[in-house]
Specification:
It is built from ten helices and no strands. It has one domain. By secondary structure, it is an all-alpha fold. The longest helix has 30 residues.
């Protein structure tokens, strides 16, 4: 597999990851309401979830995934519901969550799981990877090392894109120190988080 093909694939994946969508909005909402660490945990969950979808494509299980499409539907609505719940909690704790650092640390596993749920709840990502790979890579001549390189590219692209949003949103949250500003910020973030959940649930 040529270096040129890998670079083209990496660029395409990064552009897809950095394009605003439900996952990006959810990461940003997590950052402005929970802080950088929670947002990074969410971003890691998204990245590892995407790794799982790419792995399905690489081992040729796209057909199996389509056969068990009901599982993706369940994950889709479960992830959407969880985002709505998180958004609602942001509204209830408006003005306090950004300063409650110990509680934020305790939320890291939940943020990670929420990120993974968002990734798994997007069956279109599976089709995206399945259609992109044949365009840029010679999938019939991939070696075991090539599989590993592809997974590293996918994970790195997601972490750089989502991690960037996480760091920027977490930094932005520190600019809003007053109770009134923090309350407004949390309510905006909660609204975006709930909107992301609704968008995931309603899109085909």
């Amino acid at each position: 597999m040529s270096v040129t093909a890998l670079l083209a694939y990496a660029l395409a994946l990064f552009l897809a990851a950095v394009t605003p969508g439900p996952a990006v909005f959810a990461v940003i909402s997590s950052g402005v309401s929970r802080g950088t660490r929670c947002a990074l945990a969410f971003a890691i969950g998204v990245g590892l979830g995407d790794i799982a979808l790419v792995s399905l494509v690489l081992v040729g299980l796209t057909v199996v995934a389509q056969t068990f499409g009901w599982l993706f539907i369940v994950l889709k609505y479960a992830g959407a519901l969880y985002l709505v719940v998180l958004g609602y909690r942001m509204w209830r704790t408006a003005g306090t969550a950004a300063r409650d650092l110990p509680a934020a640390e305790a939320r890291l596993p939940r943020q990670f799981l929420a990120g993974a749920a968002v990734a798994f709840g997007n069956p279109k990502a599976l089709l995206f990877h399945a259609s992109l790979m044949p365009l840029l890579l010679d999938i019939h001549r991939l070696r075991p090392l090539d599989y590993a390189v592809i997974l590293v590219i996918v994970l790195t692209g997601n972490l750089v894109a989502m991690g960037g949003y996480a760091v920027l949103s977490g930094a932005a949250a520190r600019w809003f120190r007053s109770t009134r500003a923090a309350r407004l910020l949390n309510r905006v973030a909660g609204s975006v988080m709930m909107g992301s959940g609704v968008l995931i649930a309603t899109r085909a």
